[in-house]
């Protein structure tokens, strides 16, 4: 069987196996010259892949956010529903990111000994980050929170787009641009919508093309990490990171969203979990919100009894805008990497920078395409904003695929909760009499 015809996640798994063999067995038993040359080549491959990802950051984020937001309020008939949907997506995403923030700070999976942290981050950990991180966090206080709002409105949007640390302004501009497209006259609005939807499709295809090379990029990024790190310490640290993400996702999935179903939608959460099982299994296996969307719409309409009007508006929009699990994951990854750098003797991120991570995780998740591994693009936006190098993403590659499946399931389930909740507030009766009878059990 030709490995090139395998699905992406199997290719990445094969790449990780080869990475372990090459980095942990072949290189340590090779000559010093061969090992040094191999590491240099792997670093080149990893940097090339990361540069390709960084190349699409600005256009992908802009096109995706504008495309996702511009439909809100575009039609008078869905104006009220649009506001409710936007509020749900905002609060559910914020709740997810806050859970991630709390859990990662309680468990602190990146709080390890300096040698392990330096090995995971690479030989240049002590010097590559020092100036950037120190300038970001040293001497900061809570009063610097106001600087976040200043960065939301840059004086020059083009200059902000070329500065990784100023992408917050690009995101704010994109949201406002999308909102006011919905305020245009019908003919002008349709022209803008066609342009930005086609622009988003181009960027999605380009991003998918780049991510096809993820197995090669993974090999280049992870081999140096494996070679320079004690495997026992590496897997122990990643195990705690894995547990942290799973615990945070579980809290949001089983508690936060259940509370919304119970007290806002007024339906039995257990009923909804059972009826959405096919959607959850499909989302978990495909790791794609977009690929699951047709089944999500069908299941929500037929099993939950949500009207076509509500499902056709909330679910396609949610597949682009509502990314609870992804936003949570982005927050945990960035803070985990920051903790690793703090373990090497760098200054830990202060409250202001952590809140900036929360805000960027929430806003960049809006622009994340519903395709596997696309959240890496959003993480590449956040890391430079707090003075961390994009290349540090390599430390989480070993666990990314399984966690991608888990966070996609949370993303899609939150979409279904949103559809049921909006339907209930619009006077519909999701699950009809079943929710009443189930609640009495």
State the major sheet.
none
CATH hierarchy, class: Mainly Alpha
- Rg over C-alpha atoms, rounded to the nearest angstrom: 22 Å
Structural class: mainly alpha
CATH topology: Proton glutamate symport protein
Roughly how much helix do the residues carry, as a percent range?
over 70%
How much is the average pLDDT?
81
Q: Number of helical segments? A: 22
The topology string of helices and strands comes to: HHHHHHHHHHHHHHHHHHHHHH
| Uncertain stretches | 123-145, 433-441
The number of E-state strands comes to 0
Kindly estimate the percentage of residues that lie in beta strands according to DSSP: under 5%
Please indicate the count of domains: 1
Give the second-level CATH assignment, the architecture: Orthogonal Bundle
Q: What characteristic shape results from the CA principal axes? A: globular
What distance separates the N and C termini? 52 Å
């Amino acid at each position: 069987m030709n490995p090139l015809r395998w699905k992406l996640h199997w290719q990445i798994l094969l790449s990780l196996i080869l990475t372990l063999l090459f980095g942990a067995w072949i290189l340590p038993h090779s000559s010093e010259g061969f090992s040094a040359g191999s590491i240099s080549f792997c670093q080149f491959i990893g940097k090339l892949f990361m540069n390709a990802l960084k190349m699409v950051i600005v256009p992908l984020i802009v096109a995706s956010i504008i495309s996702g937001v511009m439909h809100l309020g575009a039609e008078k008939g869905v104006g009220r529903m649009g506001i409710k949907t936007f509020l749900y997506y905002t609060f559910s995403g914020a709740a997810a990111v806050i859970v991630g923030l709390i859990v990662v700070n309680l468990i602190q999976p990146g709080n390890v000994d300096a040698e392990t942290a330096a090995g995971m981050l690479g030989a240049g950990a002590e010097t590559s980050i020092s100036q950037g991180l120190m300038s970001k966090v040293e001497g900061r206080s809570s009063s610097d929170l106001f600087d976040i709002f200043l960065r939301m409105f840059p004086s020059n949007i083009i200059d902000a787009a070329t500065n990784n640390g100023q992408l917050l302004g690009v995101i704010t501009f994109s949201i406002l641009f999308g909102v006011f497209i919905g305020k245009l006259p019908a003919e002008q609005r349709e022209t803008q919508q066609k342009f930005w939807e086609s622009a988003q499709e181009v960027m999605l295809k380009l991003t998918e093309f780049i991510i096809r090379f993820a197995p090669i990029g993974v090999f280049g990024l992870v081999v140096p990490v494996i070679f320079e790190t004690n495997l026992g310490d590496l897997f122990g640290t990643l195990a705690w990171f894995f547990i942290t993400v799973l615990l945070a996702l579980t809290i949001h999935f089983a508690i936060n969203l259940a509370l919304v179903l119970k007290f806002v939608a007024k339906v039995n959460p257990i009923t909804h979990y059972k009826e959405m099982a096919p959607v959850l299994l499909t989302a978990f296996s495909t790791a794609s919100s977009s690929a699951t969307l047709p089944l999500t719409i069908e299941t929500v309409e037929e099993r939950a009894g949500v009207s076509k009007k509500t499902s056709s508006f909330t679910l396609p929009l949610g597949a682009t805008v509502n990314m609870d699990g992804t936003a949570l994951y982005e927050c945990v990854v960035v803070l985990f990497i920051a903790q690793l750098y703090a373990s090497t003797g760098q200054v830990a991120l202060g409250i202001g920078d952590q809140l900036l991570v929360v805000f960027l995780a929430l806003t960049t998740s809006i622009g994340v395409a519903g395709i596997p591994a696309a959240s890496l693009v959003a993480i590449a936006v956040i890391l430079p904003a707090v003075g961390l190098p994009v290349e540090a993403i390599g430390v989480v590659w070993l666990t990314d695929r399984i966690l991608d499946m888990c966070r996609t399931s949370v993303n899609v389930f939150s979409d279904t909760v949103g559809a049921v909740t909006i339907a209930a507030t619009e006077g519909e009766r999701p699950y009809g009499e079943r929710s009443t009878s189930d609640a009495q059990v």
